[in-house]
User: Which sequence fits this backbone?
């Protein structure tokens, strides 16, 4: 693969597709477009403006913002000037933001709004930081900060700006640092993974060798751009092919945004697909008996077609006829809900339930699951539009190496591996061995056809007191197939049996309670009733037929509140903070185990 920088890639696209729409966003409920030519000008002006503020090659620019055009421009302008971006989730607290700004030594921070600016103003003024400039994307009447437009105007006034911009951009090498991305930190302080231009571009080149990205493609971007999955898949990848990136208005408008934008490709974590699946089943349940019968018949037909496709054989003429009827009666409506021209979804960030992937494919919607980490830029393996296997994360992407260690841990080596953790040489040495193999911390296997399958996180494996090992994620995903179970976390490390903390689907529970003539007003009391406890026990038993006896959930506690970012139970990428949850609910856990030490 050719070693190129992100700067070179973006400049090539701007030259080839100048008049085409690059970015789309909503202003007062109306979609606005920014062409590639205009994008190029804004990148140049902001880059030159940052230089006027004293930003030099290697300096860090922190980014605290939701997805919007200014995020993309700031990232690309910083890289064009040889700077290093430090993206942060907009949901982080002031203390978390301060830690990252301080640890990275950021000289500039760009924030989206007054709400985010307040976090910066809450910094401990007695502590030392390198922070010199605060830039706000919104136009705020605050003389203590600069606005995005003001910095662009500063850049416009630079003499010989075109020449200076070109020189700065071309001085950047593929091995130069592009970004420090801090891991979510399910335990302990987050660590900053150092990724170069070459790291990112090796992933972009590998991805474009797997799927064709064209100027006709439209990506709906709603996962945080501070997440490396969206950064690569929903930012650099579409920019490499002249595609359009449309920014969702918010997490709560995804359904309408899909209708408006009609994306061809979309990245998401499994929770979106799980939510869509739940809404579909609930809608069917609320329909007439005839509607339910037609839906389930259609899914059965779709599943047979899906199986034929997976086995690379043509469906029979009778099955094809039935599939055409099922499509007209049911599946066209489901596909229309995504905008009607989706090529495929991509799932990453957490394990996707095989049953969910199979359901959507039966409906004619393909979800390609992939696998990677922040430290690997991120993609290690991914299913292809013409080569996929549900229940796996696909074959290894071209140009990298993967092997399975003796203890089952997945190791990877190649141009995608980070340079190390910022200011943490001992952590770096622990993660990357002397032969250059990065230790992912994930347990997995590679089948005879080269497809990678993830079993669980190494640190999540439950070792029962009898020595048996239990991988919780596959069991949790299977149990979440119950319409009454929204979220679940298995327990049992150094204990005699497996137990679980369960967040029930409150709507379904209340509906069941109404059918059983139970009082649903007092939720805590309702969850403790014999009827609800028996309902959940029955669901666990029903979905546990494939588990070994020692893997089965023996006792459980129903949670009165959902796991959330606000309560500190999950990361911004929607992963459970298992240690935090265990500490918070220690009393309930101890009660489940009784005298079990």
Assistant:
């Amino acid at each position: 693969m050719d070693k190129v920088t992100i700067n070179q890639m973006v400049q090539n696209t701007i030259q080839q597709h100048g008049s085409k729409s690059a970015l789309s966003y909503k202003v007062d409920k109306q979609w606005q477009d920014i062409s590639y030519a205009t994008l190029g000008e804004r990148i140049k002006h902001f880059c030159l403006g940052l230089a006027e503020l004293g930003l030099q090659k290697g300096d860090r620019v922190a980014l605290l913002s939701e997805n919007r055009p200014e995020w993309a421009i700031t990232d690309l302008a910083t890289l064009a000037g040889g700077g290093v971006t430090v993206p942060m989730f907009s949901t982080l607290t002031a203390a978390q933001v301060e830690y990252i700004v301080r640890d990275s030594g950021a000289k500039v921070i760009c924030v989206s709004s007054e709400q985010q600016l307040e976090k910066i103003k809450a910094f401990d003024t007695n502590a030392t930081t390198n922070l010199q400039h605060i830039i706000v994307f919104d136009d705020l009447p605050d003389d203590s900060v600069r606005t995005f437009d003001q910095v662009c105007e500063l850049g416009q006034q630079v003499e010989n700006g075109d020449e200076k911009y070109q020189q700065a951009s071309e001085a950047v090498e593929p091995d130069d640092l592009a970004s420090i991305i801090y891991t979510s930190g399910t335990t302990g302080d987050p660590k900053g993974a150092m990724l170069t231009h070459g790291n990112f571009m090796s992933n972009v080149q590998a991805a474009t060798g797997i799927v064709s990205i064209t100027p006709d493609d439209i990506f709906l971007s709603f996962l945080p751009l501070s997440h490396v999955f969206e950064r690569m898949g929903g930012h650099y990848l579409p920019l490499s092919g002249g595609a359009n990136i449309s920014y969702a208005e918010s997490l709560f408008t995804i359904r309408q945004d899909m209708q408006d934008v009609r994306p061809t490709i979309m990245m998401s974590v499994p929770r979106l697909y799980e939510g869509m699946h739940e809404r579909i089943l609930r809608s069917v349940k609320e329909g007439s008996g005839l509607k339910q019968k037609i839906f389930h018949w259609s899914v059965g037909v779709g599943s047979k077609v899906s199986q034929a496709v997976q086995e690379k054989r043509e469906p029979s003429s009778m099955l094809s006829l039935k599939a055409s009827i099922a499509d007209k009666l049911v599946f066209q409506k489901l596909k229309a809900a995504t905008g009607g021209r989706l090529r495929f979804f991509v799932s990453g960030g957490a394990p996707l339930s095989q049953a969910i992937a199979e359901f959507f494919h039966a409906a004619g919607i393909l979800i390609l699951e992939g696998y990677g980490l922040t430290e690997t830029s991120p993609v290690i393996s991914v299913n292809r539009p013409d080569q996929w296997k549900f229940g796996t994360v696909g074959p290894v992407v071209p140009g990298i190496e993967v092997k399975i260690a003796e203890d089952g841990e997945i190791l990877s080596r190649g141009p995608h591996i980070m340079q190390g953790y910022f200011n943490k040489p001992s952590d770096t040495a622990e993660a990357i061995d002397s032969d250059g193999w990065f230790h992912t911390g994930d347990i997995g296997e590679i089948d005879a056809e080269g497809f990678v399958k993830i079993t669980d996180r190494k640190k999540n494996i439950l070792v029962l007191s009898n020595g048996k090992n239990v991988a919780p994620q596959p069991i949790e995903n299977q149990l979440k197939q119950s319409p009454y179970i929204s979220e679940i976390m298995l327990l049992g490390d150094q204990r005699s049996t497996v137990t679980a903390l369960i967040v029930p689907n409150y709507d379904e529970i209340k509906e069941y309670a109404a059918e059983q003539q139970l009082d649903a007003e007092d939720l805590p009391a309702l969850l403790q009733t014999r009827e609800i406890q028996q309902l959940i026990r029955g669901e666990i038993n029903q979905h546990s037929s494939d588990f070994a006896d020692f893997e089965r959930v023996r006792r459980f506690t129903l949670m009165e509140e959902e796991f959330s970012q606000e309560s500190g139970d999950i990361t911004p990428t929607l992963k459970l903070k298992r240690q935090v949850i265990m500490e918070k609910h220690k009393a309930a856990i101890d009660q489940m185990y009784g005298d079990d030490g």
In short: DSSP finds 21 helices and 25 strands in the chain. The CA atoms of residues 383 and 394 lie 4 Å apart.
